[in-house]
Amino acid sequence: MQSLAPLRWQTGTIEQIVPRTPRTRSFFLKLSEPFMYEAGQHIDVRLTAPDGYQARRGYSIASAPEMGPDRIELCIEELEGGEVSPFFHMVAEPGDTIELRGPLGGHFIWSSEEGGPILLIGGGSGVVPLMSMARHRTASGSKVPMALLFSARTWEDVIFRDELLEMHGRRDGFDLVLTLTRDVDKRDGVHARRIDSGMVMQAIDQFPALPKRVYLCGSNGFVDAAANASIEAGIPATAIRTERYGG
After folding, report:
1. Among residues 104, 127, 157, which one ends one of the domains?
2. pLDDT tens by residue, 124-147
3. Domain that holds residue 139
4. Are residues 94 and 119 in the same domain?
5. Label partner for 82 (CA 20 to 30 A): which of 23, 102, 143, 205?
């Protein structure tokens, strides 16, 4: 899908900030130069200090392409010692502008026209590009079988929790499998361990066939473990696409 403007730095205006978890917030940006994007793509953000020092970070787009070419949603986790995320969490306010460029990435993308079944596996904020895919499925009216296996630390750390539970509750071919690795409370239907092959098998149990594609996003260690669990569950390695964020 081609962008409407050249891939160059532009400004985005923060229109709205929505808390998602204690450590994540969504930032809804209006673009000065609209572009089309696909579910799973990301953008680069650039901050410039008064002394000219610049810091850049890549952030996945959380919104579905159906939101339109002039607005995007980023969901950003505050990272200790980070150069860019603290700005968003401690400084940024609606009305502020930031520099960005995109869309970027052509490997970790999915369109409903490609069909499925599709398995999404996310760890923590690695769920963000997967949420774009799940939202795209809904917005496009697709009935492609899709499951999201999502690992978070606690119930409060489940990003987009209410929206995902609502998607799951529709029973239209989208299934959510949750696991919480540090939650002190036992919850019905929610696992309390790290992702393993049994969890992967549960996620794909309702599929008519093995997943056509697996999209896996999270930290380096998470991606390695979840990819191995997927292969142990019988999914070919060639079907797995991964995206990693810092260690």
Report:
1. 104
2. 999 999 999 999 999 999 999 999
3. 112-245
4. no
5. 102
Both tokens assigned to 162? 């209410």
Give dist(CA 76, CA 57) in Å, integer. 11
For residue 121, the one-letter residue type is I
Exposed / middle / buried, residue 132 (Cβ in 10 Å: 0-12, 13-18, 19+): buried
Rounded average pLDDT over 204-218: 96
Output the pLDDT for position 223: 96
Q: What does the pLDDT read at residue 80?
A: 83
CATH number at residue 90: 2.40.30.10
186 and 69 within one domain: no
Q: Over pLDDT 70: what percentage of the chain?
A: 97
Angle of helix 128-139 versus helix 161-169 axis, rounded to 10: 40
- Ramachandran quadrant class, 171 (left: phi over 0; alpha: psi -120 to 50; beta: rest): left
Look at residue 177 and give its three-state secondary structure: strand
Contact between 77 and 126 under an 8 Å Cβ cutoff? The reply is no
Average pLDDT of the chain? Answer: 93
The answer to whether residues 100 and 116 belong to one domain is no
